[in-house]
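subagent[fold] <- orchestrator: predict structure for attached chain, return tokens only, no commentary.
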Amino acid sequence: MADTIRVGLVGCGGRGTGAAENCLASAPDVRLVALADLFRDRLDRSRAHLAGLSHPGVDIPDERCFVGFDAYARLLDSGVDLVLLATPPGFRPLHFEAAVGAGKHVFMEKPVAVDPPGVRRVIAAGEKAREKGLGVVAGTQYRHHEMFLETLGRVRDGAIGEIREARGYYLPGGIWRRPRERGESDIEWQIRNWYYMDWLSGDHIVEQHVHTLDVIDWGLEARPVRAVGSGGRQVRTDPVYGNVYDHFSIDYEYPEGVRVASHCRQWEGCAGHVGATFVGTRGTASPYEGRIEGENPWQYRGENAEIGHAYVREHTDLIESVRAGKPANEARQVAESTLTAILGREAAYTGRSLAWEEVRDAELALGPEPTEFGDLPVRPVPVPGRERS
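subagent[fold] -> orchestrator:
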């Protein structure tokens, strides 16, 4: 690769724009040279923000701004070396396959799929990336955070003994929503209001709580074998909230009989908490606080304890790995963490106790890969105990 890395952004919303800014700050000789989005207004807003940074690496002329359903493909053909994939996750498998096929290094936001077929596509494309020597890093930023790395390193060294159970939480407030504008087709409105559509976000247990579940899987060095749980729409019942739930409570079973209590919700005006705790025979570890209690008490005192640092570090790690000729590849890792979240979602949606293999191999596909705007009724809200529609 040339000394200068030419970066293109696919998906110019808030997270995509933030990822581009993080990438520019992550290493020397990085240039942001192309943008792609389905919507012109989103691209223009992102372009204006990035231009306003006055960063010497921002170089986005009109001819490298691409709009439409095929914008990602045109960006991949524009001479970029590294692509940032930050569209709604329902499009992630398609875009990742295309990026790998075009020989591009990839940073892709989590989650990387919304259904089991999508997970399998990402794993397969990740193996092709490995064969091609392409770098792949995901937006599971805690894996690049010194406090998390040191805390879980101590856990692996035996600081809390044998892990018996764990708890994981993602309890924020509410998030944005977008009412339908006059004249918008079903598909345009759903993509603009993507967080509340299962085929685009995977529901918030997949889109957001995957962060905590990824930390759980990482700390246990395992994937769940089974899950049972519940969830529903207690607060967000208006049609503007599409067909997703607003709360989930999942009991995961991991190898060796380890149990994980997982709880996530998005309710405004309620107590909030984001974190995870591992309970061992000799103590407990809380990586979000950088703390171990019990027989070997410890508190992280290092630099960069704030979470925001890791949003830049993940890009640094990707670029440094590529420049060193040892490209990182997190595709399978993040795909399987995504599947951990999908397993919990499907256990709640169906009311069944589901095995990992049953969901991993399922043909459940949540949505289309549209190439134009048009009609698409919102799928009914899942009701446990009834057949999935």
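orchestrator: received. Logging for downstream: The chain has 13 helices and 15 strands. The first strand starts at residue 5 and ends at 10.
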